[in-house]
Amino acid sequence: MEFTAQQIAEYTGGTVDGNKEIKVSNISKIEEGKPGTLTFLANPKYTNYIYSTNASIVIVKSDFKPENKITATLVRVDNPYLAFSSLLKLYEDSKSPQPSIDEQAFIDKTAKVEKDIYIGAFTYIGKNVKIGKNAKIYPQVYIGNNSTIGDNCVLRPGVKIYDDTIIGNDCIMHSGVVIGADGFGYAQRTDSNYQKVPQIGNVVIKDDVEIGALSSIDRATLGSTIIHRGVKIDNQVQIAHNAEIGENTVVVSQTGISGSTKIGCNCMIGGQVGITGHLIIADGVKIAAQSGVGGSILEKNALVQGSPAFDVGKYRRSYIHFRNLSDIYAEVENLKKEVENLKNK
């Protein structure tokens, strides 16, 4: 597909500085720009590339003032990164598969499937499943009985949705995501063996949630594990049974959230964070990467780091001493020897 600078400006709410009729048909990095491609400048570190790029159109901030000559046509917008991301979405949509149902897909006769959706080969759709409008279900997806998939959802190859799962509108599940597997629940017997506790709840995922590849969200023991609207989950994240993630919270890769923990809205949880069970994390909390959280964080907008995690300012001040601990120890030992010498004298 080809777009002119004027069309891009109209779509992004920007203005054109240069040739309004110049066309692009592909995307490029600003440092690797080629004729006929579109790029953007959002990070000031890349400003020098705008004077040498061969890209035909560059999206820039409205108040950008060039210091040297620029050959590319500029589209000026309020937020270049946001504008470019919306254009990437448009580009991605143009490459999406057209509505069709592959003859090698299995759809139970009791399932209710809209006509304008895409279902790939070797997908299994169980009893009483409901799939909304404009959904894209890629090959080898499994959707268990009594599950609901909302409008405009995308389930990438190999996604597994267990029975009774409810997924809202505009959600994206990447390859290898598992929704609704059994929670990790066992009762210890007197002989130190373990008896499995049946997990008979489900998972509820609200609108506009994206879940990265190979992440898993466990079904509740009773009730529901709930992922609220706008949550973004990275690759390889584990969310245990009966956990609840508040609206617009971001969870980065390799994080593990234990059972029955309630995380508030607008939180940011860094990579490889571990959170134990039955905790409360307040709204707006930020947890730095590789932190271990063993207690509730009730202060809104707190920023914590470390294992066990505590206030990030205190952590950074303490870290200065952590790094010098061996030197401090040696100095203390020398002082002890000097004190002993003084005592002997």
The gross shape turns out to be flat
CATH class of the largest domain: Mainly Beta
What does the radius of gyration come to? 27 Å
Q: How many discrete domains?
A: 3
- Helical content class: 10-25%
Strand-residue proportion: 25-35%
State the separation between the terminal residues, measured CA to CA: 91 Å
Uncertain segments = none
User: What is the CATH homologous superfamily assignment of the largest domain?
Assistant: Hexapeptide repeat proteins
- The helix/strand class is alpha/beta
Beta strands, count: 40
Number of helices: 4
How does the major sheet shape up?
A: 12 strands, mixed
* Biggest sheet: strand arrangement: 8-11-14-17-20-25-28-31-34-37-39-40
Q: Remind me, CATH topology of the largest domain? A: UDP N-Acetylglucosamine Acyltransferase, domain 1
CATH second-level architecture of the largest domain? 3 Solenoid
Descriptive key words:
345 residues, 10-stranded parallel beta sheet, 12-stranded mixed beta sheet, alpha/beta, UDP N-Acetylglucosamine Acyltransferase, domain 1, Udp-n-acetylmuramoylalanyl-d-glutamate--2,6- Diaminopimelate Ligase, Chain: A, domain 1, 40 strands
